[in-house]
Amino acid sequence: MDKQPNNPLHGVKLIQILEKLEAYYGWEVLAYKIPIKCFDNNPSIKSSLKFLRTTPWARTKVEDLYLRTFVKS
């Protein structure tokens, strides 16, 4: 079995990350912190997931913000 005990994102789905960030910051602040169109122009969880699943650099930025916000070392 592939275990990742040192990976804080292991077992956390992208939708969970996005919903938690949106609830904490709101779309306006998310768009400021990570300036991507799916957060700024008519944002929704569904459209953001679609974009983030196909855009690795943007997904990395979202995951990094999640770690900085909720997973303090």
Task: Describe, in short, the structure shown.
The chain has 73 residues and is an all-alpha fold.
What do you see in this structure?
- With about 70 residues, the protein is an all-alpha fold.
- It has one domain (about 15-70): SAP domain (Transcription Termination Factor Rho, Rna-binding Domain, Chain A, Domain 1, Orthogonal Bundle), CATH 1.10.720.30.
- The protein has five helices and no strands.
- The chain has helices at about 15-25, 25-35, 35-40, 45-55, 55-70.
- The mean pLDDT is about 90.
List the defining traits of the structure above.
73 residues; mainly alpha; Transcription Termination Factor Rho, Rna-binding Domain, Chain A, Domain 1; 66% helix; globular
SS element count, helices: 5
- What is the H/E order? HHHHH
- CATH class label: Mainly Alpha
> What do we call the CATH homologous superfamily?
SAP domain
Poorly predicted regions: none
Report the helical percentage.
55-70%
Label the CATH architecture. Answer: Orthogonal Bundle
Number of domains: 1
Q: What is the name of the CATH topology?
A: Transcription Termination Factor Rho, Rna-binding Domain, Chain A, Domain 1
Gyration radius over CA: 12 Å
Number of E-state strands? 0
Sheet of most strands: none
Strand content: under 5%
What's the end-to-end separation, in Å? 26 Å
By secondary-structure content and strand pairing, the structural class works out as: mainly alpha
The backbone outline, from C-alpha atoms, is globular
How confident is the prediction overall: mean pLDDT? 92
